[in-house]
Every structure is written in structure tokens, then in C-alpha cells.
Specification:
Elements: H1 7-11, H2 22-26, H3 30-37, E1 52-54, E2 59-61, H4 62-75, H5 82-100, H6 105-114, H7 118-122, H8 124-144, H9 150-172
Antiparallel strand pairs: 1-2
Amino acid sequence: MNYRLLQKDIENIEAGFNPVNMGELLYLEEQDIQEFVAGKIVVIGDFFENDMHETLFEITAGPLILLNAFLNIESGDTYVNFWFFFLLFLSYCYFSYMVFVEGDYMESRITKHFGAVKLANYLAGFMSYLILLTLLSCLTFFLFNIHLNVFFLAVTFYLMDKIVGLIYAKMKN
């Protein structure tokens, strides 16, 4: 999600975000309240103390996260196009190939590069998934503005690779 407003923007009056306490607003006359909120997006919630969440950028208030989600939907940032899904499809086809074929190209390059390091040879499959998924994440971020969480995907593919390897080994026996 694009964060159009950050927590620091709330604290900076010059940014155009003007937080007002609900109690102060309720002391105004009804017509003054209507004039004050006319043509504005009104977000009600705790922006400074109890509803704080850790995001990629900073600790952010819950209502601000919801406001950013609304602004993303309003501006059309949630549109995911055909080419994004096509890229994911091709990538996952290759990752599936890596799972079912022992000693694929990336894994063999890593083991050749690190040579005698036992741990590197053992984790070559995981590193190959992590490297390729990191490249895929960078590509999707810069082309489509979509971030992929690659670590858990790499762990999943690596575990599937090991399970398939064990099944193949049992079938040979």
C-alpha cells in the first residue's frame, strides 16, 4: 500500500493534515461543525497513543492506515493488471520446476561458487529461492508498485523441495 500520509505528517501542521480533538469539535454549534467538515475527509480515531501499529515506514496510527487504504482505493492504486499475474505465473512455473528437478541451474551455480563450504552447499536450494524471489520482488515493486514478502515464500518452496527430494529417495528404494 502506498502511504500518502505518514505519522510525521500528522504532527506537521504545514503538511495540510489538521487533527482536531473530538471534544473541541463538539463545543461548536451544529452549523459551525458542518462548515468545518464540509468537503473534507473526516477520520475519527486515536492518532497519538493507543491505536499504534508498526508498518514498513514507522509506527503509524490505525486510523491513518485506514485513511491511506481509502486514498489508495480512491486514486486507483489497487488496480493489478494482467502483466503482473502473467509474471507471477511464469515465476511460479519456474519455481515449481526447481522443486521437482534436483540440481537446477541456480542451485548448481551456488554450490560451484561456494565450493567446500558445507553449510552453503546444504542451503544452496534455499539461497537460490531467496535470490530469485528477491529479484522477483524488486521487479514487481519497480514495475507494478507491489511488494512481495519473499522470505516466507522461499522457506515454503525450500521445504517443498526437500519433501519432494525425500519422496523421490523413498521411491528409489
